[in-house]
Amino acid sequence: METEEIFQFLSPSARIDVKAFALDYVLGLTSTTEGKALLSSDKRYIESIFSLTKDSTSSIVKDSYIALIGLSADDAFANTMITDYCIVPSLLEYIVNEESDHVDTVCMLLANLSRNSFCCRKLIELIDSEECSVKLSKIVEVFCQKKFNKKENNLDHLGLFLSNITQLREGRVFVLDRTQCVVQRLLPYTEYDASEMRKGGVIGALRNCCFETDDHEWLLSDKVDILPHLLLPLAGPEELTEEDMEGMPDDLQYLSDDKKREPNPNIRKMLIESICQLCSTKEGRKIVKDKRTYVIIRELHKTENDKEVCVAIEHLIQLLIGDEPEKGMENLKTVEIPPEVDDKLNKIMLQQDKLEHNE
Predict the structure, then answer these.
(1) Using CA atoms, how far apart are residues 263 and 316, in angstroms rounded to an integer?
(2) H or E stretch including 58?
(3) What values do phi and psi take at 124, rounded to 5?
(4) How far from the centroid of its chain's Cα atoms is residue 298's Cα?
(5) What pLDDT, in 10s, does the model give residues 299-321?
(6) Euclidean distance between CA atoms 188 and 234, whole angstroms
């Protein structure tokens, strides 16, 4: 198909069948390296596809967004979409419109656009700018509002978007803003069984926020009470003794005999990593220990069969039962490892990697 011909077919004024044919051709191109190279050779491709997201035919709109999703999987394209075509404000406005038809597809596109740190930073800067009327707080509001969209879109991929933006400190600052109550609104989704995408995205965002050590005491305080929400998905049906439960949060005591643990090992690992981060400061470790976290993790370890999760569990157990560091080393994230020790640890890790590779 000739280049000029395809642009005519991708025009909003073209017949519906012609536009559908042209979009199908473009969708095929987005799945190959050669096809993406062709699409990147002329900026009119993105301009034409994006113009069709405003089409009056629903199927044309959906296919246009799907084509953009395919292109946004490439970092260079994602950067171009954000910086050169400024499509983000339009995407956000579409998402927060309760009457929009293809919100789930657009949420997938937004998640793709925020995947790498460079694009994510550009995206956050844009949302914070005066050019964008829809702010992150509104995105969280519609994400947490049950059945917000009237066309049965669930907005679950916004969880992945939140996980992506919290990889950057700018995103974590927003989620941890104590006047916004974002963290508190996200916590119930750590046990949201209706969507693994939503649950995993939220837990990823919470884990990222746990890297902010200055907020640990607040996160563990009654104002947020993050620990029970991280531990409950890891708890099983085991009957605990009164001694074991003494000091444990109420939500973790006397669980039913049909209580099931989080089935996804990747999510279990993120939950454990979150708790490990909360143990990186002396104050955090004390609170986590006093809440009888060890008991829940001990029972989890007995049943865990995923290798990576077991490694994370064993690291957490060491933090929970190990001796407290000497004075001046209480914050484990600020401790400087001597070069000779660092070299020795790296050699040990390399040897372990070789052994695992040979197994």
Answers:
(1) 20
(2) helix 58-72
(3) -65, -45
(4) 27
(5) 999 999 999 999 999 999 999 99
(6) 14
